[in-house]
Amino acid sequence: MQLNHNISLQKYNTFGIEAFAENFAIIETSDDITTLSELTRQYEQWHVLGGGSNILLTDNLNGLTIYNQLKGITIIEENDTTVLVKAFAGEKWNDLVQFCLQHNFAGVENLSLIPGSVGAAPIQNIGAYGVELKNVLETVEAYRLDEHKTEIFSNKDCNFGYRDSVFKQSFKNRIIIVAIKLRLSKIPKLVIGYGTLQQQLEKTGISKPTIQQVAEAVNIIRTSKLPDPAKIGNAGSFFKNPTISKFRLHVLSEQYADIPGFTLNEMNFKISAAWLIEQSGWKGKREGNVGCNPLQPLVIVNYGGATGKEVYDFSEKIVQSVKQKFGIELEREVNIW
Ligand code: FAD
Ligand code: NAP
């Protein structure tokens, strides 16, 4: 295991924020986990870092920062209809998607091009275009940093919710995900109901798409709408879509007839946070080095040289503005460190 000190984290987070890790351990083999077990006893604070695409660094990181680079993707078992694939946490999520597409394993095609690592995917139950990780996840293998032992979490144990899991709640900063297993299908059940995805497929004249064509359509939409973190610092959607009651939506729609609400269950609706932000006047707005993306206002961008505090303060102004106009409090999706 490599242990380095006072490491700049600028290239380890997609916001491109400058901050330093006091102690930076790189985990590359399963033996490193054993060494890690001894090392974690020396520090009171731990941060597990993947691709850094869902964090905002507002300060230097004290204690131990663990950079997970465990690699490997393998087929564990296979039958006529399904396959079980194991992937280690340090693999890139999109490399796992590519592996599945190459083998014709269906289930993750809508999650194409999501940045970050395999190990972070269960943390917020990554999701896009009507599919979430929970739809295919079988187990999570994690190492308990607090109890120095390996634990297997079933899908149910993960307590997945909308951009949420047990790892973001009671196990926050207490575990390191080592590997995950996904149950994928050899008989695709496509999820292509999202308006933008449907339109993109129609545009290309495809009526019965393959999983590869679905992934390609997703890639086209994503690259046309989302800023590339390699060019402009960002962490994707900064806020979650809020949930409001049927009654509240009814009241709001009397004033805002076009408010986009999606049914969650009989009593609750999901509201587009992007719409709320745009209506509050933030779309495309820039203050110093920080701004609200002109194409997708859910994304806050670092135009260069912004500090984490500047980004956070900008996000707070959006929260207050939306609250004042709609009485809805936006919740941050990005992990604030
Ligand atoms: P990091 O940012 O490194 O970490 C995020 C959290 O996971 C932290 O709390 C960290 O401690 C924890 N973590 C990371 N690895 C481990 C591990 N091995 N064990 C334990 N904890 C760990 N998200 C979506 O859900 N859907 C999208 O469509 C989507 N699109 C995006 C588009 C862009 C352009 C960007 C920049 C981001 C997008 N995201 C999206 C957010 C992000 O890509 C995901 O949340 C991703 O899973 C984060 O992975 P990461 O490895 O970068 O995690
Ligand atoms: P979009 O298609 O313009 O839709 C706007 C919002 O409406 C989305 O947030 C989506 O919710 C919701 N929505 C649209 N159609 C829906 C339907 N048929 N049923 C239920 N909800 C619907 O969104 P976008 O910004 O271009 O993003 C496309 C997808 O990629 C979304 O699923 C989004 O979550 C995901 N994405 C996530 C991130 C991130 O960082 N987390 C970044 C970029 C894109 P949901 O968000 O709940 O799906």
Keyphrases for this structure?
globular, 3 domains, Uridine Diphospho-n-acetylenolpyruvylglucosamine Reductase, domain 1, 337 residues, alpha+beta, Uridine Diphospho-n-acetylenolpyruvylglucosamine Reductase, domain 3, Uridine Diphospho-n-acetylenolpyruvylglucosamine Reductase, domain 2, 20 strands, binds flavin-adenine dinucleotide, binds NADP nicotinamide-adenine-dinucleotide phosphate, 5-stranded antiparallel sheet, 4-stranded mixed sheet
Overall mean pLDDT stands at 96
Task: Please tell me how large the radius of gyration is.
Answer: 20 Å
Name the helix and strand elements from N-terminus to C-terminus, one letter apiece.
EEHEEEEEHEEEEEHHEEHEEHEEEHE
The count of helical stretches stands at: 7
Could you please say which CATH topology of the largest domain applies here?
Answer: Uridine Diphospho-n-acetylenolpyruvylglucosamine Reductase, domain 3
List the helices and strands and how they pair.
Elements (H helix, E strand, L loop, with lengths): L1 E7 L11 E8 L2 H11 L5 E4 L5 E2 L4 E8 L4 E6 L3 E7 L4 H10 L24 E2 L2 E2 L4 E8 L4 E6 L20 E11 L9 H9 L7 H15 L7 E5 L5 E3 H10 L5 E3 L4 E4 L1 H7 L6 E2 L2 E3 L6 E4 L5 H19 L8 E2 L1
Parallel strand pairs: 2-5, 3-5, 4-20
Antiparallel strand pairs: 1-2, 6-7, 7-12, 8-9, 10-11, 10-12, 13-19, 14-16, 15-16, 17-18, 18-19
Helix pairs in contact: 3-4
The structure holds flavin-adenine dinucleotide and NADP nicotinamide-adenine-dinucleotide phosphate.
Short description:
The chain has 337 residues and is α+β, with helices and mostly antiparallel strands.
